[in-house]
């Protein structure tokens, strides 16, 4: 390959700064050329020590900076649609953090814009597809020895939720990961969603419906149930068990170091998704850099981003009405048909 | 104590014969005095080698046999109501296999008969209450360090179902165990049931809705979800995770022997509840014999048997209608109020 | 069978009282007829509530009590030789707690006495042979799919040692279990022992060499290494891994209940062998009662008791001299040849 | 930082080619400038697709290639001493694969040369120090809550050994990892080694003494036992349990995906150290590149390489003589004293 891929990073918050560090030091093959953030201090802080990287306040200016060959979008979700369309207009490959676009209407506009373009430029940051354990699970399921999947039991727990987290965001922001993972593992589309609400935990902020229990039905007749609990207090836990016709496979049992003392065996639970999925983020960005340098687009597509948005929307409706909610999807453009 | 408790066993099928063996050889403090089964050959086979035990064809004759001080009912469910009432009429302590009585109407009659009697004679055979791991789980939950229970995730799998097993029996016969275990662990009563139906497994007999996914709501605001899969093909698995305000506790990870060979670590999964719960059955019968010899009645009550029946009935309604079904319970007689 | 087996229990200490309770209430088929202990108060306490059981101070008086058909020896080790010979003289079947006899010379006298008798009467209480996990391990090894055993890695830890426990007793009393288990699992005899001494733990009493690391070589070329640590402070742990030609098998990973809270997954470690091996003791005594009522003798033999004593003796020599010590065994009498 | 570190890679075999790929694509901050291998075809193959990298046959020519700022030595062990001295002569920082130098005499010459230089240039490739689980274990041990380490139980198994692998190489090449890991975890130096030899496995090549059981004694009174079994047939397994004064900690229980089917729960065992330690290699090289760009030398030192060689030498002596062999170490130069 040789030349390093010149990348503009949009957004210099927690996630954007982490990606700048990753592109500069952890992942080979790329260099950060420009970082844009409306807050100039944050942009400057992100490029400190990164040779040849420019700090800017305007996303479009960053896309137009000399040497930019690709874009990594890590700005807040509301800025994603404009940034994606600007990248499409310039023919720049994009890695866009999830959610691709909040709300299915905007997500559909992105899908239609890319479909008009006639070629894929966008990869969406569903990093679980790059996690070793998820990849193993998919490979076992695809291998066929267990037969078809009948149910997926999922657990998704955070120690605590950030300020301003709403009951709808448990679905839009958190369960979105399970929605994408389920589609990817099963090769099926969501058909309906129900949301059950146990008594809220006193550990959650006043008024937040936490935990929730989400049940997804797919067009292939599979059930996906998800415990989402964003103030569980005890650790970050992601588990997934696929119950199949001939057996089951599960990931997420705490591995690692077992310490025996004072009458118990203890194993650590990670406190944070950046710990649990650190390697998945590295692999995701590495895979994107490698593919982009070869002129390819792989990974989750804008269509995947759209379906996640539309399904989460149906989930929020189910949460609010207390009834089962059907998922309505636009027709899938030919660009996104499986090869 | 001294004298051995004289027991009449009703029913000499698989379970009855097993209990005869248990009372004769495994559990101390009791002796089998009479075994009744409509099939004389089965009754004879069960008492073969059991000194002093008589084989009979009539349940009432067994209750009236000389030396009978207590009754163990292991006949088919339809015979339970008459047997329980006959035991009550004679003032005999009873251990009755589950289901106490099929159908909530008959179960309520038993409750009312015992309430009229004014003292407890019946213990119902929910043997999970006697399993070491369940007992540990209850003790951890009661200890209070994890706060209140918000959700119970349960898995209940059998290798294959016996001939004639119907879609309703997945709830009435199998999920009945989780219904009782949930009530016992939570100290709450069921309020509503929903049943979701993934695509049936091709491993299940034609027409059987297997697996099912049952969601129970309690009057205390907890959710209990149960995967019931009676033709899973791979083993007998019972798991239960309690998700609480401050942490979680789960039982049922396969323990035992780990064999590493040919690139895998393998652990055995038991094939049968008689293997998984062998010790629980022994403990249950031992506890019953011990308590009975001391003139006490402990363990699950006729009220517990009735609530399990009424909840299962609501579950079957939910399965048939595809909607959430409310659980209606008769008022609880004073006899069954917690001390 | 019918009639209950009349048993005399010698010794009413911790273990003896536990066996009285077991024979009376937990295990079917037997009744305690007499209990002998030099301390009359202990003997009385042990028979309290056991109908028909007599408290005595003399072992021989207990053997001669009316109704005695079998003997369970749970007195201190020094009293075992006389008790065994007295039982042999009366033709009474015996279950003798380990150590059969402390010291190989006395153990050999017991072997010779039983050999002269020409029939087996004694079973030695190596209860691990009755533990479910050990039995599974033996069955996997005997099955042959893993090939022959090359090494056994054993761990044996106690929370703390009783008063008066000496450095030699780590081998004689504790490692004795691994010596017997290894012989039973491998079907090979010990050939040599070495004892390595890491720095003693400050948690052990002054002067006690604890932990020790014992390496046993068998006449079949297998190595057995044993960590013995009787003041480990954290729990009672027994693990055993068999490394074979084609794979390995291990037991002893803590199963049971996993509690997740405050950033860790915790599983309990039992604090005591009476907890860990409770079921094994029950099974052992039940198997002895069953076999005895059928006129049979099964389980570990006096020869097994003798070899354990002779090997432990070599181990203590190795501990004291710091060198490898050869195990010398007397010729095996025909009575003990495998069928 | 900015400019990419120019690296010369010596050796283009399996490991060398893997490092070229790692520096080019997986790890940021470096670029491969030259690759030297006596076999021109191998050198050419390694640089194919690596822009700006030159293929050479002479190690010294590679060190002198324009743009070379650091050296990664992955040639066969016999070439290491000359390569290290050549790098020292040029003042180039080095990452040298293990063994640093085969044999303690040559290793000591490297130590003395670097000591004369008066500053550290060499880091030795003991990659376990960069493994997440080992790092966690060290952090728990250093934290002090478990007290001091009394014993380390280690297991090191390979599926099969490469052609030409000798009985001595089980210690020199394989146990060398445990020797370094034990020194690093304990902060103590080896004092003596014993090697026990169970019956060789029929799965090992004729004449190879495999498995072996190595016991290391440290100058701090700790025992380190290592099962090394390089033809175990079933998988690549590395386990380590530290037994401490107040508890124990162990790593290496197979985590990952659990598949339940046909009566067993199965978890995969990796087949290869490149799978098990893939992340550790990445982290090691990344840490080296980062430190070197900052003008620092961290990680295992030439002294660590020397002690591993001297201890392995004592181990081979113990294997050959069948007796305990003392480890003799030269005085440690001030350059290697802990800060």
UniProtKB/TrEMBL annotation, chains A, B, C, D:
Question: Gene3D superfamilies from the entry?
Answer: Dihydrodipicolinate Reductase, domain 2, NAD(P)-binding Rossmann-like Domain
Protein's UniProt keywords contain Flavoprotein:
no
Enzyme Commission code(s) on record: 1.1.1.18
Q: Which GO terms describe its biological process?
A: inositol catabolic process
Pfam families cross-referenced by the UniProt entry: GFO_IDH_MocA, GFO_IDH_MocA_C
Quickly give the catalysed reaction: myo-inositol + NAD(+) = scyllo-inosose + NADH + H(+)
- Top-rank lineage group of the source organism: Bacteria
Q: Which GO terms describe its molecular function?
A: inositol 2-dehydrogenase (NAD+) activity; nucleotide binding
Q: Which UniProt keywords apply?
A: NAD, Oxidoreductase
According to its UniProt record, this protein's enzyme class is: oxidoreductase
Domain Gfo/Idh/MocA-like oxidoreductase C-terminal as annotated: residue spans = 138-326
Domain Gfo/Idh/MocA-like oxidoreductase N-terminal: from-to ranges: 6-121
Q: How does it assemble?
A: Homotetramer.
Query: What does the sequence similarity comment in the record state about its family?
Result: Belongs to the Gfo/Idh/MocA family.
Q: What is its biological role?
A: Involved in the oxidation of myo-inositol (MI) to 2-keto-myo-inositol (2KMI or 2-inosose).
Tell me what this protein is called.
Inositol 2-dehydrogenase
Q: From what organism does this protein derive?
A: Streptomyces tagetis
């Amino acid at each position: 390959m040789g030349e390093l891929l010149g990348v503009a990073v949009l957004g210099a918050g927690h996630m954007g700064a982490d990606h700048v560090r990753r592109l500069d030091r952890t992942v080979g093959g790329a260099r950060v050329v420009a970082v844009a953030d409306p807050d100039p201090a944050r942009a400057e802080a992100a490029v400190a020590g990164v040779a040849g990287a420019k700090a800017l306040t305007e996303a479009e200016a960053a896309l137009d900076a000399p040497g930019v060959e690709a874009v990594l979008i890590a700005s807040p979700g509301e800025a994603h649609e404009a940034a994606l369309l600007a990248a499409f207009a310039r023919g720049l490959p994009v890695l866009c953090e999830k959610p691709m676009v909040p709300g299915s209407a905007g997500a559909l506009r992105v899908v239609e814009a890319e479909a008009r373009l006639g070629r894929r430029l966008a990869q969406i940051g569903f990093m679980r597809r790059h996690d070793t354990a998820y990849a193993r699970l998919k490979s076992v399921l695809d291998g066929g020895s267990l037969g078809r999947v009948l149910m997926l039991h999922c657990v998704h727990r955070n120690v605590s939720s950030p300020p301003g987290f709403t009951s709808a965001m448990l679905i839009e922001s958190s369960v979105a990961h399970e929605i994408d993972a389920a589609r990817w593992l099963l090769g099926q589309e969501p058909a309906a969603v129900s949301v059950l609400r146990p008594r809220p935990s006193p550990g959650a902020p006043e008024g937040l419906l936490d935990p929730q229990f989400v049940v997804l039905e797919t067009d292939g007749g599979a059930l996906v149930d998800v415990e989402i609990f964003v103030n569980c207090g005890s650790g970050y836990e992601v588990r997934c068990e696929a119950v199949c016709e001939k057996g089951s496979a599960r990931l997420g049992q705490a591995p690692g170091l077992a310490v025996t003392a004072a009458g118990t065996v203890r194993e650590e639970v990670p406190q944070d998704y950046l710990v649990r999925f650190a390697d998945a983020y590295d692999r995701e960005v590495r895979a994107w850099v490698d593919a982009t340098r070869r002129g390819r687009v792989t990974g989750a597509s804008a269509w995947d981003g759209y379906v996640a948005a539309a399904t989460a929307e149906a989930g929020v409706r189910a949460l609010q009405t207390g009834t089962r909610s059907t998922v309505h999807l636009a027709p899938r453009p030919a660009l996104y048909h499986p090869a």
